Amino acid sequence: MYERNENLPSIEMVAKMAKAFEVTVDFLIGEGESASYDKQTVQRINDIQKMDADTQNVLFNAIDTYIQNFKTKQAFR
User: What's the domain range around 29?
Assistant: First the structure.
């Protein structure tokens, strides 16, 4: 059976902390895919998700262009 360590916060407390800092629980505890993203990156992703589909498509097209350019430059180094 799992024994709770009194020095660790409850999952509810971790969730509240994540909400207060406007990050995911994974980010807060340093786990998961988004854990390595800085707070500004996470906030930008969250803001983009709130936008309408047309605006998202414009942003993603611009981002994709920059990513492709970066990858091409990396390939020729």
Answer: 1-37
